[in-house]
Every structure is written in structure tokens, then in C-alpha cells.
């Protein structure tokens, strides 16, 4: 399998996104919704025009993709995010960033859907906790996304979450949290660790026996990342462990 988020995969994401955008824009026009053109050219104007009672989903293309294409964004060590390309994008009100020591992507509003997006933290196996994506709420879905990191890659914190046809990679407890999450048709990759460490795929954070939270894996595949496969070494690997009391 190829690595996540290389140039070929980014181009494939762009192609899929453009096809989906054109199809959904046609549907939005037929439904009379804001499509980023005409009277609702700016996302804020489109939202104001909907009124408080609106319940249908609003897709704002120009606010979410100001550059027109998905790009890999790198930040040098020790450099603040305001000085990076992310900071420049933030000035255009196109993204919001939350930090937990390293810069990560955090989802804090329900009814969020992501498709064909790569969430990546490149800090490395020696840096400890390197969350690539934190999801704080329920009623969210991820489709054909890549979540790439090392220790604690995906923090599925709370709520009902659904992930379908995604790739995730990591080392220690790289799917963790107290969410009720379903992972369907997933590709799970174990990466190469530091010496005397072991791979652990999941770490559920239930605090009490009465909680109804769990991680459900349906039709998922577990494979070694290419660096681990090439190492020809024996690495202890566990499907899961309790992170909290249960």
C-alpha cells in the first residue's frame, strides 16, 4: 500500500472533491440553496440569508477551500502557527485551529462531515503524544479520509461518531477516547516504534460501568505500515487496552 497523503493521493482527493463539488453545486442551485455564487457569494452572507429556522445542510465552498485545491501544509519546528501558511489562511477566516501543545485538527461542532481529507501529525514516534485529529462531539462522519500519526493519532473524545472507508496509522493507543464510534471498512496500519515499545490499536476511556460507549470495528483490515513491514523485526501488538476504568 502507498503511504498516506503523497502527491498522487492529494491529486486524487482534488479530483474527487471537484467532481463532488460540481455535482452538489448543481443540486444546491436546483434546491435554491446558497452555492458560493450570486447573492450568497460570501459564506457569512449565505448563512444570514437562511434564517434561524433553517434545518437543511449548507455547503460553503469558497470559505472552506480558498485556494481551490487541497494542499499538504508543513510547519517548521519552533515556528508559531500564526507565522505559517495556516496562519495566513486563518486571516481569510477559512479555518479554525485549536492546540494541545502540538498543532492539531479539532472538531467541536456536531453535524460535521469530512470527505477525502488527510489529517496528519508528523512529529514522529519519539515525540510522545501526537494527536492528528480530535473529535469532541457527536453526530459527525468521516468518509474516505486519512488520519496519520504516531501515538494517540485519533482522539475520539465524546459523542456518536462514524468513520467509513478511512485509513488510520499510528503506534500506541492511536484510536482512543470515550466516544461511541463505529469504524467501517477501515484500513488500520501499525507503524514502527521506538525500542521496547509495543503497538496498541485502541484505548477506550469509559469512566463508569453504566456508560454505553464503545468502539465498534466492522470489516476492518489490520496491516503493518511499510517501515514496520520492512524492518523484519518482531513487535508486540495488541488490539486494545482500557484507558480509563472500563
UniProtKB/TrEMBL annotation:
Query: Which keywords does this chain's UniProt record carry?
Result: Aspartyl esterase, Hydrolase
Here the segments flagged for biased composition (Acidic residues) are: 1-10
- What is an example of a Pfam family matching this protein? Pectinesterase
SUPFAM superfamilies tied to this protein:
Pectin lyase-like
InterPro entries according to UniProt: Pectin_lyas_fold, Pectin_lyase_fold/virulence, Pectinesterase_cat
Keyword Membrane applies: no
Pathway given for this chain reads: Glycan metabolism; pectin degradation; 2-dehydro-3-deoxy-D-gluconate from pectin: step 1/5
Disordered: region residues: 1-51
Show where the Pectinesterase catalytic domain sits: 106-246
Basic and acidic residues bias spans: 16-32
Kindly state a single biological-process term from the GO annotations of this entry: pectin catabolic process
User: Any idea which GO molecular function terms this record carries?
Assistant: pectinesterase activity
Q: Cross-referenced PANTHER family, in alphabetical order?
A: PECTINESTERASE
What this protein is called in its record is Pectinesterase catalytic domain-containing protein
| Source organism | Asparagus officinalis
List the lineage, top down. Answer: Eukaryota, Viridiplantae, Streptophyta, Embryophyta, Tracheophyta
